[in-house]
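Z., the sequence and structure:
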Amino acid sequence: MSDARAAILAKMRAAMGRGRDDDARRAAVTDRLQRSPRGLIPARGQLDPAGRIDLFCEMAEKVQASIARLPSSADVPAAVSDYLKSKNLPARVRTGADTRLAGLPWQGQAHLEVAHGPAQADDMASVSHALGGVAETGTLMLTSGPDNPTTLNFVPEHHIVVLRAADIAGDYETLWDRVREIHGKGVMPRTVNLVTGPSRSADIEQTLLLGAHGPRALHILVVGE
C-alpha cells in the first residue's frame, strides 16, 4: 500500500473513531460471512410448485419478457426455431458449453445453426440456461462460466433463456442457498446476473426504451411442470 493511500485510510479511521486493528469489527465480519444469514423473505412467492411457476410467468410478462411453456427439454430446439421465425431473425443462435443445452436434439432443426462460445458483436440471438428463477419478481439468476458466458446475457438483441420449472424458487434467498450448495461455501462464480425482463431505460423524457443497455427482447422457455 502506498504512503498516500495509507494516510487517507488512517484519516478515515480516525474520523470514525476506529483504530487500525479493530478486533471487534473483524470478528463481526467473520461471523457474518460464516453464517450467511437470510434476508427478509416476502410472503408473495411462498406458494406450492404450480403456484410459483404461474407467479413467475405472470411477473416476467409484466416486465415485457415473453414466456413459452414446454413439456420437455427435448422441445427446446423447436421452440428456439419458432421464436426466431416469429421475429424474422436469421436461423442462428449462440450458446456456451452448457451440457444441458448440448444434449438437446438440435439436429432435428435442419436449418438452425448453433454457434458456441462467448457472444460476438454480430450475434442476433443467444441461448442460455438459468440456474433458477424467482417467483416473486419474475427474475432469472444466471451464473457465469464457460457453460454460459456472461456476454450471452447482454450482447445479442434477443436473449433466449431455458429455465427448468423445478428450478423456480419463491424468493431470492433460496437461490443464493443454491449457489452456495453448487459452488461451495465461500466460493462464488465470477459473475451472478439477476435479470428481470429485457434491458430498459426511461432516462430521456421518461420514455421507456427497450434494449438500452443489453437485449431488447427476453424470451423464457419454462420446461416441465
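The CA atoms of residues 101 and 149 lie 13 Å apart. Helices lie at 3-15, 23-35, 49-62, 76-86, 99-102, 151-154, 172-183.

Let me know what you think.
H.
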